[in-house]
Design goal:
The complex is a heterodimer of chains A (377) and B (309).
Chain A: H1 2-25, H2 40-46, E1 52-58, H3 63-76, E2 80-86, H4 89-97, E3 103-106, H5 122-130, E4 134-149, E5 157-158, H6 160-167, H7 177-182, E6 194-198, H8 203-215, E7 233-235, H9 237-247, E8 251-256, H10 257-262, E9 266-267, E10 269-271, E11 276-277, H11 281-289, E12 292-293, E13 302-303, E14 317-325, H12 331-345, H13 347-352, H14 363-375
Parallel strand pairs in A: 1-2, 1-3, 5-10, 6-7, 6-8
Antiparallel strand pairs in A: 3-14, 4-8, 4-9, 4-14, 10-11, 12-13
Chain B: H1 3-10, H2 16-68, H3 71-75, H4 91-122, H5 125-139, H6 143-157, H7 164-189, H8 192-200, H9 205-233, H10 237-242, H11 261-268, H12 274-304
Helix pairs in contact in B: 1-2, 2-12, 4-7, 4-9, 4-11, 5-7, 6-7, 7-9, 8-9, 9-12, 11-12
Classes of the chains: A alpha/beta (377), B mainly alpha (309).
Chain lengths: 377, 309
């Protein structure tokens, strides 16, 4: 009796194990129902396919863009697999220097001065990990939208000084004379302004506060950095601040363009002194094309001009980089990386990113990027 | 105070039967009251404990249930699916979870069971105490510490890549104490009479263990293993540190990233786009289902195989 039941258990477990293994054998990667339309054919012609598996990690700001690029690349090149984990820019740099990923995604280029507490610079550590110079390659431009929710106000213009005063709590109601003065013809209600900010450490916060500090140095008194030092109520992640503004009359925050689009929030026009500029892809590319190359050679580090008064240039944006070894340790992987980045930087792919809230690289920078990618080996 | 109480106090001897009667009924009333209060409190505590459970199940089923009815959920991976697309499935993550659990079990079960056999059958003196103490310490190790330890050894010291096998190593650390403790209990339940009868027939000790003790406790050991498996399958910290996610089906635990259900949930948990949010709930429900099935299997095995005495 006992032995019989034991056998039965052994059988059951055996069947379960075999079943598990059998199940592990099947399953399909072929999601043909997902149609990718448009420019994937154009990138197909411009991309020589490579095969293999490639892993990257880092910035969440570029995750949606790179997901799209990966999907399109893999449609063109079925033999290739590219993985990207959005774990944050800091983690991206760390894993890249630890040799864990073939490329890192970061909102800021590798630093050439040691950060507090470190003995070697990020650049030096990355170079050492590569055994060759590590290059920063700008790939995705993420505009930051100033979004608001005020009943009856569908058009709002903000200058850097007024933005800074709103975000550090000096201006507290929507019908404040300072706001009214730059928005002639708009009826502003007496609703209180509710500022929301990112409670987590964020590259978006860093770039937005950098913009405020550069463009409104007298009005913006708080420090700039990854953590918010202004006034308001903290919310977790881009989705958190976007949802909070959507649900709050009188709310205002800064968030990535893609979130503003997905949540269908009203975006303020920014007037840096050259007239109000609406957030559009050409306006962002226009501002980015004015950025200066602060790196050397194929290491492309863009220095943004937040104070630009150029008409039609939208000044609040962040650039995310792919960090890669100029000479890959594994030839096959290096070839795959080069092929993937080439497809990512192609005009077809960059134009496609506009629909999901990113701006394409301007022609002058795209040229430098393509040169750098071609020089990868 | 009732009149009966007063009389019973003043005239104890004379009025014992009625007094004690009255006292009895009084005390029983207070007992009944206390009983009632205790019962209400207990039921309340039970219901309060039930609230989060039902709530979790309810939201997971309502938000993620629909996806599971889609046949591609069980057959396809997420390759080529971005957060704004509907489609694809969780086959890659389900397979990854099962494969990593199996690989972990292959390593942890022999070590765990052997350790338990040593502790129960052979362990005397200082070494056994040390082993037992170490198992206790291992039980108390938070999963994040196990994960960081393996990261320090695997990546920082040896410079290897993060692969599925490294995750398995961290999970082994978490699974061993569970198996040791459950197997130990099961072996202790085996009657000493059985062992003595076996010795009396001249059977050597190792054979007694292999043929009498372990078979008698077999179903209990299997139950412990299944529960241990259920525990490590839902473990997330080692996966976050050692097992980055991939959308592709990947079954080679030595050669690259292996996707799992917890990392699939983590990947999209901050998304606002509906297709991605739905998939997070779907993956959560799938994970709950798999672990539920394992728990039920554990119960079934222990019921079917309970030693007949």
């Amino acid at each position: 009796m006992k032995i019989q039941s034991r056998r039965r258990i052994a059988n059951v477990t055996g069947v379960a194990l075999v079943g598990t293994l059998a199940l592990a054998g099947c399953g399909s990667n072929n999601n043909t129902t997902a149609t990718s339309s448009g420019s994937s054919s154009t990138s197909a012609s411009s991309t020589g396919c490579a095969t293999g598996t490639l892993s990257g990690e880092g910035s969440t700001a570029q995750k949606n863009a790179i997901d799209q690029a990966i999907t399109d690349y893999q449609t063109t090149c079925p033999g290739a697999t590219v993985n990207y984990n959005g774990t944050g820019s800091g983690a991206g740099v760390k894993q890249f220097t630890a040799g864990q990923v073939a490329f890192g995604g970061s909102d800021s280029a590798l630093k050439s001065v040691p950060v507090a507490g470190a003995t070697v610079t990020e650049q030096a550590a990355a170079d050492k990990a590569c055994g060759s110079p590590a290059w920063d390659i700008p790939m995705v431009t993420g505009p930051i939208a100033v979004v608001y929710n005020v009943k009856g106000v569908s058009k709002l213009i903000l200058t850097p000084a007024v933005s800074a005063k709103i975000f550090n709590g000096v201006i507290t109601t929507w019908n404040d004379p300072a706001i009214a003065a730059i928005n002639p013809g708009v009826t502003l209600p007496a609703t209180a302004i509710k500022v929301f900010f990112r409670s987590d450490s964020s590259g978006t916060t860093e770039n937005f506060t950098k913009y405020l500090a550069a463009a409104a140095p007298t009005a913006w008194t708080a420090a700039s950095g990854k953590t918010w030092t202004g006034k308001g109520e903290g919310k977790q992640a881009s989705s958190g601040v976007s949802n909070a503004v959507k649900a709050t009359d009188g709310g205002i925050t800064y968030t990535e363009w893609s979130y503003a689009k997905d949540d269908q929030l009203a975006m303020a026009q920014i007037d840096n002194g050259g007239g109000p500029v609406e957030l559009t892809a050409p306006a962002v590319s226009q501002a980015l094309s004015l950025a200066k190359q602060a790196g050397t050679g194929n290491n492309i580090i863009l220095k943004l001009d937040y104070t630009t008064k150029a008409p039609g240039a939208y000044p609040i944006l962040l650039v995310t980089y792919e960090i890669a070894c100029s000479k890959g340790k594994d030839a096959a992987k290096a070839k795959l990386l080069q092929s993937f980045l080439k497809s990512f930087a192609s005009s077809g792919e960059q134009a496609k990113l506009v629909t999901i809230g990113y701006a394409p690289l301007p022609a002058n920078i795209q040229g430098q990027v393509n040169t750098a990618i071609a020089a990868l080996s | 105070m009732t009149a009966a109480d007063v009389t019973s106090d003043s005239n104890l001897a004379a009025l014992r039967p009625p007094a004690s009667n009255a006292g009895f009924s009084h005390r029983s009333r207070s007992r009944a009251l206390r009983n009632l209060v205790a019962r209400v409190v207990m039921w309340l505590a039970f219901l309060i404990a039930l609230v989060p459970l039902v709530w979790i199940l309810w939201s997971v089923v309502t938000k993620g249930g629909a996806l599971l009815l889609n046949s591609t959920w069980w057959t396809n991976s997420q390759r080529g699916i971005t957060d704004r697309m509907v489609g694809g499935g969780a086959a890659h993550a389900i397979e990854g979870t099962l494969i990593e659990a199996l690989a972990t079990a292959v390593m942890a079960v022999p070590i765990g069971v052997m350790t338990a056999i040593y502790l129960v059958e052979y362990g005397r003196g200082r070494l056994a105490n040390i082993v037992s103490f170490m198992v206790d310490i291992l039980t108390g190790i938070p999963s994040i510490v196990a994960a960081l330890f393996i990261y320090a050894v695997w990546v920082t010291t040896f410079g290897f890549q993060r692969v599925g096998f490294a995750v398995c190593l961290a999970l082994v650390l978490l699974m061993i104490p569970v198996i040791v403790r459950s197997t130990e209990e099961m072996l202790k339940l085996v009657h000493n009479d059985l062992r003595e009868a076996s010795y009396a027939l001249g059977v050597p000790k190792w054979k007694t263990i292999a043929r009498v003790v372990v078979p008698t406790a077999f179903s209990g050991i299997i139950t412990g293993i299944l529960l241990g498996l259920a525990r490590i399958m839902g473990e997330t910290a080692p996966l976050l540190i050692l097992g980055p996610y991939t959308k592709d089906i990947a079954t080679d635990i030595f050669g690259g990233l292996v996707p799992t259900l917890p990392t699939m949930i983590n990947q999209d948990r901050t998304e606002v786009l509906q297709p991605a949010v739905d998939r997070v709930w779907g993956a959560a429900m799938t994970l709950i289902l798999i672990i539920l099935l394992l728990n039920i299997a554990g119960r079934l095995v222990s019921r079917l195989g309970a030693p007949k005495t």
